[in-house]
Amino acid sequence: MVRANIKYIIKIAMLCVIAAALNRFLSLFAVFELKIPLFIDTIFTAAVTFTTGLIPGLVTALLTWVLGFVGTYEPSPFLICSIAEVFLVWLLKPSIQLKLKRTINDRTFAENISVLARLMLLYIAASITVSVLGGIVDYVYFTVLPHFKAHISAEDIYKAGLLESRYPILIMNILSRLPVNLVDRFIVIFGGYFISLAISKWVFPSKKN
Question: Contact, 167 vs 15, CB < 8 A?
Answer without folding.
Answer: no
